Recover the amino acids of this structure.
């Protein structure tokens, strides 16, 4: 998650969280939407918490054709298809809470 | 550097622990709307509110979506109507309440606060007209909230106003009897009322405030409860530290949302109110935090100490997280809006007297308490007087929001639904305080009010 350290691109980064049972195709499903709409993926990490897959992507929305609201809708629809919960939030929601 | 654990912590707080922003409240000054013709004054009020608050709801919804944190309520507070309406040639202020109601409906907010009067030392002509209009206003409008400040540490307690409020509350309950006395849930009696409180029903836009301002009220009992559960058995230092850290994180979200809303609406950012505001949802309860600290039921011996620790730790954590803290800022203990409180009352663990003791160490006061419908007005006034005394002597805000539930007895329930919830009817003392309340006049300010 080193990309959150520096402040260039501030305000353009979006954090996407995927939580749910692990299955084939989750990463492909999410990254497919991102690539199609020109979101640049800066970082991906994942872990298993209580048998659930937890994946976090940090993306740069600088050149994307979609606004955050529309991205959320597309990801949520994809999540429903794959039985996982996908959300996208502005990075400030996390930085404000955990960093001074 | 953010870690995946931190990101998941935030997501869990929202998705599983009910973290939300309880309200963004736009304060609007109506001082420039006074007019000798009440209809002209109301037109100015309507125009100003709809002009300044037109974007409040969409902006709130945008922010909630972007940051992924629910903003439960968007609301408006206005200058106390007793001040705005005083110069109008009318004795009935219902028209002002109806105007506020229409403006609130037009911009899509569920409550608008400020049908208020400040009468802690005495009652002016405008104040009296407003007070007399309260029962009708709360009956005929849906979204208007009323509040009356009857005491301050500096001025003492206006017992004439306290006596009047007992009668008014009975009247409001009577007029809204078909709705379980719902009108009383929108009427608060205060001591030391804050001028920048974003929470209903007691919000109004104080006279020292700017033209308009955004104030934010955070929530988050569920987050604190989970954190407290994780330190089961540890000592009080660790417990306080844990609550402080949770309060810090909760408040930071409030700060972010407040600043963001203020900048998008082009109004100054006022304060974050760092209150723990429960909802009727299971797990979003202040009582359950106290129980997680080690009490078998909220209301038993030890409850006041547990609440004191909680309230203080929330303030310490919250104060660090925000540049401007204000409003009520403390844990709320409304009975009807807190599932743990309701259970404690049902199981006879929590009584009115214990609730009163608890209000000595946390914000607000006797909040959303249902009592039998045949409770005399003088008894309600005496309950208010006790609470006002606690506020006056301890130099803090206290309030009473009490519902003498029409036609109901101990063991019955009032049902309001939504955030206002449901409350079991609680017993009151049967011995009279009528001769005390009936004396009239003011209880003098305490010696420590002479601080200059």
């Amino acid at each position: 998650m080193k990309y959150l350290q520096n402040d260039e691109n501030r305000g353009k980064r979006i954090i996407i969280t995927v939580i749910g049972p692990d299955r084939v195709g989750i990463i492909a499903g999410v990254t497919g939407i991102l690539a199609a709409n020109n979101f640049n993926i800066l970082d991906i990490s994942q872990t298993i918490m209580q048998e659930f897959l937890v994946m976090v992507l940090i993306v740069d929305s600088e050149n994307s054709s979609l606004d955050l609201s529309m991205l959320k809708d597309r990801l949520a629809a994809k999540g429903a298809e794959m039985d996982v919960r996908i959300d996208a939030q502005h990075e400030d929601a996390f930085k404000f809470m955990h960093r001074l | 550097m953010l870690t995946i654990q931190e990101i998941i912590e935030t997501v869990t707080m929202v998705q599983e622990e009910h973290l939300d922003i309880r309200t963004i409240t736009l304060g609007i000054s109506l001082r420039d709307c006074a007019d000798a013709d009440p209809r002209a004054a109301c037109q100015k009020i309507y125009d100003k509110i709809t002009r300044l608050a037109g974007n409040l709801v969409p902006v709130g919804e945008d922010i909630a979506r972007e940051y992924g944190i629910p903003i439960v309520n968007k609301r408006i507070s206005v200058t106390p109507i007793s001040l705005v309406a005083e110069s109008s040639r009318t004795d009935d202020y219902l028209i002002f309440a109806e105007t506020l109601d229409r403006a609130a409906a037009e911009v899509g907010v569920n409550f608008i606060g400020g049908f208020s009067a400040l009468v802690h030392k005495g009652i002016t002509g405008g104040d009296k007209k407003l007070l007399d209009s309260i029962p009708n206003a709360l009956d005929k409008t849906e979204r208007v909230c009323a509040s009356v400040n009857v005491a301050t540490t500096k001025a003492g307690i206006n017992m004439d106003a306290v006596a009047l409020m007992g009668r008014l509350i009975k009247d409001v309950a009577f007029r809204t009897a078909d709705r379980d006395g719902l009108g009383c849930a929108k009427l608060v009696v205060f001591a030391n009322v804050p001028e920048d409180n974003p929470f209903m029903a007691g919000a109004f836009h104080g006279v020292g405030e700017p033209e308009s301002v955004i104030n934010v009220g955070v929530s988050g009992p569920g987050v604190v409860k989970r954190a407290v559960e994780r330190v089961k058995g540890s000592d009080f230092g660790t417990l306080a530290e844990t609550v402080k850290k949770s309060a810090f994180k909760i408040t930071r979200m409030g700060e972010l949302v407040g600043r963001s809303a203020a900048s998008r609406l082009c109004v100054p950012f006022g304060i974050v109110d760092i209150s723990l505001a429960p909802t009727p949802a299971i797990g979003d309860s202040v009582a359950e935090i106290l129980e997680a600290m080690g009490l078998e039921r909220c209301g038993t011996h030890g409850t006041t100490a547990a609440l004191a620790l909680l309230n203080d730790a929330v303030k310490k954590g919250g104060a660090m997280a925000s540049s401007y803290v204000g409003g009520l800022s403390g844990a709320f203990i409304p009975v009807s809006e807190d599932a743990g409180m309701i259970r404690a009352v049902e199981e006879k663990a929590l009584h009115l007297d214990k609730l009163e003791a608890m209000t000595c160490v946390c914000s607000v006061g006797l909040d959303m308490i249902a009592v039998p419908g045949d409770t005399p007005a003088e008894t309600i006034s005496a309950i208010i007087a006790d609470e006002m005394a606690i506020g006056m002597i301890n130099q803090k805000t206290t309030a009473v929001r009490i519902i003498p539930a029409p036609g109901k007895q101990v063991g019955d329930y009032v049902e309001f639904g939504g955030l206002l919830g449901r409350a079991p009817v609680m017993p009151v003392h049967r011995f009279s305080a009528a001769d005390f309340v009936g004396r009239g006049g003011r209880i003098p300010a305490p010696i420590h009010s002479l601080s200059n």
